[in-house]
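Bench log, entry 3. Co-assembly request; chain sequences pasted below exactly as received.
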Amino acid sequence: MTTANTEPSAILLPEERGYVGTTPSHVWRRLAYGYVVLVAIGVGYFLFRMPFQLRDNLGLILDAQQLSFWDIVTEVDQGYVRPLLGGLVKIVFELSAGHYFVAYKAVHAAQVGLLLLLFVRLLDVRSSLDFAVSTLATTVLVGIHTFNGTISEGFPINTFMTILVSCVAAVNLSMSRPRPWVAWAGVCLLAWAVFTLETGLLVWVCFVVGYLSGFRGVSRRTLIVMTGVLGVYFLLRFGITDAGAPPLASRSTGFGFSSREPAELLARFSYAPLMFYGYNIVSSIFSVAFSEPRAGVWAFTRDLMEGDLGSWQVVNIVSSSLVTALIGRLIWTRRRRWAAFNLEHGDRLVLVFLGVLVANAAISYPYTKDVIMSPAGVFYALAAYVATRDLLESARAGRFRFVSSAIVTACLVVLSATWCVRSIGNHYSLREQAFRNSSDWTELDSWTAGAQGHLRAPTAVALSKQLGAEVARTPVPNPYFWERAVPEVIKLFDPY
Amino acid sequence: MNTERSGHAGEITRRIYAVAVAASPLALGVATVMMLALATVGRDPVWAVRGMTISEAAATQDRGSVVRLIGEGVDPNARYPVRMDVLASAEFLVTPLESATLNRQAYIVQLLMDHGAVLRDAERHRLMCFLYERGNEDMYVYLAGFAPMEAPIDCSRYDPYW
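Structure output for the full assembly:
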């Protein structure tokens, strides 16, 4: 495999970007990194305060205890080909030396930190303006509803977060200078992602769209090898194992104004599955762009018609609509340059966002769920950065008009403040999740009674009790008293 | 001259926009620093687990705290204060079982009994009369199912909770 390529790096030099300033660019870059490190520490602190989940978690930990690595990676379960999901849980289990909670939480927090660092690297911060907008983009990333599931849940390693890191790492590799190790790293990254979770296929999309839009970190030949990896995945999924594709209505999902059970979905769509799949794809795209619908349910529209709108719904819709309007403005103003393939770094990021958005929605065809769209949510934050920065840059060239400037300033304040509320809301949801997790562990005995096979081995039961005792010793805040103290504030936070 | 003035005005506008964009996230960053600083000295304002009695935990469906407090040696059969507006608009001194029953938490009642709480006849009698008076049939039937009790229950002289 070779990456020989004579094309220049896609990253523009400061003078090419029209950078003019008195403070050295590396100061602003370091500030941007400092900001995301602070955010990562904040999220990490919340993660460490949150007990393990019981149901989505304990079974995988006990698998890691009872089964060999080979048994775990060769297990095909319920139509999924995710060998590395359990494989990573096993590796961390063996390396943890009995400190399971600390080990798994450390991996989760490290993933969050890595995601944010790779994210800010893509922003290519060089000026005070870049830094200002990067803080907003970070807030969008952490505040969007699709991000919530990547921090509030753990299996015990959140594999959705693994895919986010992989996707952002893919674009980082794409925009770097072409070197042999970049190509190999790209192929390994793709293999890692696709065999961890289905949305790992988006890593391939990131590489391909990145290449098509002008990033040259990986060559065409490397992309062919990557496509071969994808071929192996599909061969494994459809040829060698019985995993196949998810059946129609494999689980309950939203349609219209409410969530529907599989039986109802089958009755309604068994003769027109494409209509159902199309609905899910379109819903997923709208969900990222406008925070409506959520998991296929048009709750904002329904509650608006019923006069039962929550404050948090208004916050979500306003914040997302403003950012989407900015992205729409950017696409409109750049359309001629894009048609002529005269692309800058930011344009490429927006094109990758559009590619990931469509591909992510397409992968969501069987059912829609916020967290499945989390890769598109991350790239939405990237596009928000490019679009907001472009708006601010355009102000420099334009004439000063008091009224229009005041309106734009007000909109930017609202945009920034509403995204901060959403970010705080996602942090707050971790408190709620901690409370739920703590409560769920009181059902350990009934969980153990319902467990089968190796999950009932004496050593497995002993480990379950040990983990349960650790949770029981961990105090978590009771949201009842918090909600009583600041009820109006809580109403601003997304409860889902 | 005009171009220069226009450029200067544009630069000012751009800076105003930048402040508008970054002010909230930076304020959030400052708040995060303060929260983490307070957390390091054990005064975390966000995750603080404030003093709560087991009866309050039972009333608010806090199963984790119920089990934790019993594990720490709290007697599940003693009476503990429940602050105002949790059960009603006054403070009460009740057992965790009474607290859970008054807030119609059958699951918590079972959890407490699994961890050593005992529903005494006098307590059950008072609770059942109160539930009957309030028309809470579900919890009444639930309590009645625990053990045989002489029927009909005489509620003519019972002491209501509120």
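Chain A has one domain: 21-490. The first helix of chain A runs from residue 25 to 49.
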